[in-house]
ABC-2 family transporter protein (Devosia oryziradicis), 264 residues
Amino acid sequence: MSAYLAFAQSAFQTQLAYRNEVWANLFGKLVQVFARVAIWLAVYAGASTIGDVTLQQMVTYALLGGVITGAIRYELIISSIGNALKTGDVAVWLLKPVSFPLYVIVSELGRAVFRLVFLVMPTVAVVALVYGMLPPASLFDGAMFVAYLLLGYAITCLLSALFGLLAFWLLTSFSLEWLMQAILNLLSGSLIPFWFFPQPFGVIAEHLPFAWIVYYPAAVWLGRFDPTQTLLYFGIGLVWAGLLALAVAALWRLASTRIVVQGG
């Protein structure tokens, strides 16, 4: 375990070394979050409420979506696995007493902590000062939001590793990055919350693991569920995370038996 903590710490410190990149990314995040909020301001077109969702709730949802999706770059997990396969480095990892998928995941978590603290939080704070942001509906919802946030990051990393390992059969990771981006945009609730989805598609999307990445954390913050529902959905999310972890372990065991080194 100490080795994986060292990998995460090293990834965090590596990010500190590129200060100019930090400023460029901070500006990019600022534009991205402003655009996300501006879209919903245009959709509401002066109306204060659509259905049972107020404009302020929707702006808060958009800002929380920026917090969640801005920290983790799932494509780096997929490309790391794809590059290791392409260069042949993955064969070296088979000789080491650590799990390669877990190494990729904890390294990205180290970088995600850096982005969350130095990029995402300052960006959201600036936009929240401009447009306003609702506080959590209750102290319980605020605490559960943090728990859902951590669970969502774990599910994102496991899904990314699962997609990345498919490169062992496809021998490319680029198309897998695009595929996962398209799925996350639609099924995580990052662009449109599920309460605006047509039924029964919305109900189906609520029960897929992608929903725990953006939709459930933001909905919990806004108090859309009572405490029983909040705990129930959190438990279901834990089950999804466990199943995905088992799937990653099984796929890695299967993939490591069919490595084809193309270079390196």
Notes: The two ends are 29 Å apart (CA to CA).
